[in-house]
Input
Amino acid sequence: MKNLLILVLIPFLLLAGCSHKGKSQPKAVKGVLDLQDWNFEQDGIINLDGEWEFYWKEFPVGESLELPEDKKDFIQVPRAWNGHIVRRTTDTGGVNEEVLSGEGYATYRLKVLLKEGMDLGIRVPDVDTSYELYVNKIKIISSGKIGTSAENSIPEISIYYRYFSNPQNEIDILITITNFKTTNSGIVKSIEFGKSNTINKLSYLNISRDLFISGILFIMGIYHISLYGLNRINSSPLYFGIFCLLLLVRTLIKGEIFLQTLLLDLTFSWNYTIEYCALYIGLPVFIAFLYSLFPNDMNKNINQVINNISLILVFFVLFSSPLYFTKTLTFFQLLILFSIIYAIYIIIKAISQEREGSKIFLSGFIIFSISMINDILQENNIINTDHYAPAGLVAFIFFQSYLLSSRFSKAFTDAKEARRNAEEQKQLVQTAKEEIERLNRTKDEFLANLSHEIKTPLVTIYGYSEMITLEEDLPESTKEYGREIYKSAGHLNSYMDDVLLVTDLETNLQLDKKPILFSDLLKDSLHTLEPLLQEKNIIPEVYDPTCITINCDSLLFGRALSNLLKNGIVYNRTGGTLKIRAEKTEKDIQFSIVDSGIGIPSEYHGKIFEKFFRIDSSLSYEISGVGLGLFLAKKILDLHGGSIAVHSEVGKGSEFLVLLPFS
Ligand code: ADP
Output
């Protein structure tokens, strides 16, 4: 913040340094400005302000530029002649009073008294709207063409610097002015006067100042609009960029460089139209900029009113002539003053809400507002100071750019931080995934080892329990226990086989493929499942019209088929149907196993093929299993290059469809 203040103060001091207000300046009295005590070397430039001779509707005649003594009047400079009262004696001896409007023509005259003769210079600001300036009866400026009516005069708008040698200690300055084009007429801004080298220096300083400001406005405008173009998260840079470009247009048109003399041959009207449009559009753009920064603190209705008034004024400027639309300036200046107060209120509100950047905004805005208010008051001759708006503007632009840059840099840092967090999260997820995989492997290994260990005693239990069931001498109740043990040991044995097969399949088991009739495989599987089929009173219906041969590892493929068939029986209702269909298409062999059982809810269709997944329902809970049947079936089919899909509806049954390529 400290560095920023230094940065801002440098151009501000530089631009404000163009000021030449120092010692209090003498004013003209009754058409005479006594500068005999004015030291041009030390005191610098002086404004030719004060009471000038004024001849309403009179132009000088002849080479000696004679003006009628009886028409002589006095008027304050700088000030528009609008509202000035001209008193003329009528032929009947009465007094005729005329309150002047903007339209008309007149001659101004001033006698300047000097201590000695010297080389002098003069800067004449834009005088509305055409004039000729004579120094010691020699015409040195001719801006546009003066005349006595709108038809015989041609308007022009320019700033002139002129240099001349004056050997005497008295100068006669005479200005003839015509205006039929704009509202305010006469010498409305001070004419600056001094030694030729000082005026020359002033011209360089003024042009450099305008070029400096134009450069800043241009770069800031383009930079912020591009910033918005590249990253459209926030519209503040867009409004700020447009605001800078509008100010640039106004600086070029109003300022010392004069766009139309350098670049374009703008007509007088266009010059005014562009200048006023840039000004009148600038306010709503500024309000939009403020809104984009502090949306929660602004009153949308007030914004709308300011926007609507500005828009109406823009239309008025576009569709009327400078004579009418220049009249709206004072009203618009009041609107600007209102907007400044409104903006300061908003910023103070934003500061109290601790909104980001509100203090920076206020600092820049206060400097800008003070300079603007100073210039408005000065232009309306309420105070006599210098022109500070350009310096205020530069300060404002610096502060706003700093604000936008800091917002962008914060967004950038946030994005970087978010990316780093995401990166860290990704790393954590990756580590967790690896850990889960490792634990999974450990679990599988543990299960495989356990199964191995269990299988040895299990085989013994299996064998002995079978022997008990076959022993004739034993009582029937003991044989019944034997049968139960034999059945349970069989279940356990098949689970152990499943667990062992999982490990085998996951460690890249080699397939032993041979061609085999599907009907043979099916027969074997159904034979093993015969007790279950009987228990459920299900008679399988087989459709195998072409007697299909498949190339597979018969042991594994038979296992997959058995698992699917077993599910079709155990999850079926008693007396339900079980249809097995085998078909050959052009590309592959298709098998489908359709049951009329409990069905599978659609949300589980993708999950049932996962390892150890069982549907947690009251029905399936009663049926023993470990959730490996479908996982193994899918794994085996994958190894054969095939696929499996399920279609099922709860309460109606399920269809498992297997596709196997020919190869
Ligand atoms: P399980 O050992 O539990 O039978 P599976 O992997 O064979 O394991 O099946 C997973 C789950 O899918 C089962 O728990 C069951 O809920 C459901 N399921 C499988 N086949 C069928 C079917 N034909 N009808 C209804 N549900 C089924």
